[in-house]
Amino acid sequence: MEENEERELRASQLAFIGKVLATFSHELKNHLAIINESAGLILDLIELEKSPAREHTDQYVKSLRAIHSQIERTLSLITYFNRFSHRMDSPLSTFDVNDAMEELFALLHRFTNQRKITIEKSLQRDVPAIHSDPARLHLLLYCLMQEHMGRLAENSTIEFRTRLSDNAVLISIIPKGKEPLRGGERSGCSDELIQGILSALGGSLSRKEGEETIRLPLGASPMRE
Amino acid sequence: MKKKKDIKVLLVDDEVDFVNTLAQRLRMRELLVDTVYDGEQALSFIKKIEPDVIVLDLKMPGLHGIEVLREIKKMSPHIQVIILTGHGTEKDDEEARKLGGFDFLRKPADIDLLVAKIKEAFWEKVERAMTAIAFAEEGDLEDARKVIKKEE
Q: Can you name the residues that pair with B54 across neighbouring β-strands?
């Protein structure tokens, strides 16, 4: 298969996966909405007929409120999941880097939590949107996060900072914690893959004293239409 | 003064269980609620009975919610439309507001928030109608029309 055809196939596969995930999360939201309204209706009816004579009323109300709170928790995750899926709709879009990072961290929370790694965010709120490929940026951040997680001991922190500088959005990744004795082993993605993603994003990566900074220019990238 | 019970609401959503349960909860909060299950039914309904506020889903079989909103605003620009969707993207939100949608909520919305938005939409409609009447009484029909259509 020609390289271009292979690339086109990969892009179509990614768009297809994105579509399936987005549809799936939409369906889940609808199901949750029905559960939410049904629990809400029972709660309304209980509140309406509430009297001291009724046994277990408080217990019913407590359980229904627990259903509501779990729905809200799940819903917040699904909203991130839905946004994440839509990032694959088209190769290029205009997006807020902070939003893309927030959704990635929310979706990977259990993964980082299991390794007892805390993700710390210092995101500059007013960074301008960039025109690029958010799905590739997700992959790049995941690769770098995985690399640090492979090196850091439990109970460490990885800080992600964003800021605007010289017409570019900078994302700094700062590991805070001890590297275990077994350290030095490589995990995550290959240098070739990381460089490939960076070049597709029109960005660059610098490393200094264990910190990494991704530079994503606001202007034209090689992929810009 | 119009009571809450007199605020006519139309719920448009293809999720039958959702829309019927939500309707029941809104009726318990003294709103007058009708339900339909797709965009075509909504457009036929408003030709017969005009609601004050429509709560409209986006992703439905047949007409997409945005198309339904466009048609509603052509037919009856004074009807307030609140989008309530499980799907909505930022682009949908922007498009809905551009077409004159009153607000954009995501499913499942808190019932008290939804009721508050419905009331807010209703009172904005009343206020606009009164402003339009004032313009019309002064003979300024053009401005009266603009107020109704929410044009600058």
A: B10, B81
